[in-house]
Specification:
By secondary structure, the protein is mostly helical. It contains nine helices and no strands. Pfam families: DUF455.
């Protein structure tokens, strides 16, 4: 993976560490502490399930779990405000929310990169045009997008032929259905998800149950 990949996820780790410190400090101010309240461990379960597959990790952790955070944060902020806790609401809204968008964007960006990198080497003609369109779409998927060096790598060398953007989205659907249990839950925060670089074609098809291959049962 390019150095830019590691740079992006060092920033994500720094953000998450800072979020924890800020929230832990806020809990302490309210005579509480991390671990005092019940919480699910779905994020960690998915981390373990995808530990062997980078593409799956990016799709499920960053484009499903963190995207779900984008969906619920506006409502969470509203609840704190209605409860009179403007300080926590401000922390969530002005610090955590915008940074979580960039974390989802990193997932979209590098999941797409892996799909472009790993595509078959025999795409020609129209597929080359599709590749450039996919790369243009990829550059819009985060605040910085891919660097010129990385885009050039995908365009010029090492057999990094590209599928169409629709193929990247289809690969995302396949990975999520394999590693994430059940359909995605609406309502979706379309504006925040768009800011992270993925539109409704990424997630709406995953909001309904589909029949498992060779089975009459829905999953």
């Amino acid at each position: 993976m390019p150095r830019e990949f590691f740079d992006d996820f060092v920033r994500v780790a720094q953000d998450e560490g800072r979020h924890f410190r800020l929230l832990a400090a806020r809990l302490k101010e309210m005579n509480c502490s991390y671990g005092a309240l019940p919480a699910h461990d779905g994020l960690w379960d998915s981390a373990e399930a995808t530990a062997h597959d980078l593409k799956a990790r990016l799709a499920v952790e960053h484009c499903v779990h963190e995207a779900r955070g984008l969906d619920v944060l506006p409502t969470t902020v509203s609840r704190f405000r209605k409860g009179g806790d403007d300080e926590t609401a401000k922390l969530l809204e002005s610090v955590i929310y915008p940074e979580e968008i960039t974390h989802c964007a990193a997932g979209v960006k590098w999941f797409s990169y892996l799909c472009l990198r790993d595509a078959p080497k025999d795409h020609q003609g129209e597929e080359m045009v599709a590749k450039k369109l996919a790369l243009l779409d990829l550059q819009k998927s985060s605040e910085k997008g891919l660097s010129t060096e990385v885009v050039s790598e995908c365009q010029n060398g090492d057999g990094l032929e590209s599928p169409a953007v629709s193929d990247v989205v289809a690969a995302f659907h396949d990975v999520v259905r394999k590693y994430f249990r059940g359909p995605l839950k609406p309502p979706f925060n379309e504006a925040a998800r768009a800011a992270a670089g993925f539109g409704p074609e990424w997630y709406l098809p995953l909001a309904t149950k589909v029949a498992a291959p060779g089975s009459d049962h829905l999953r």
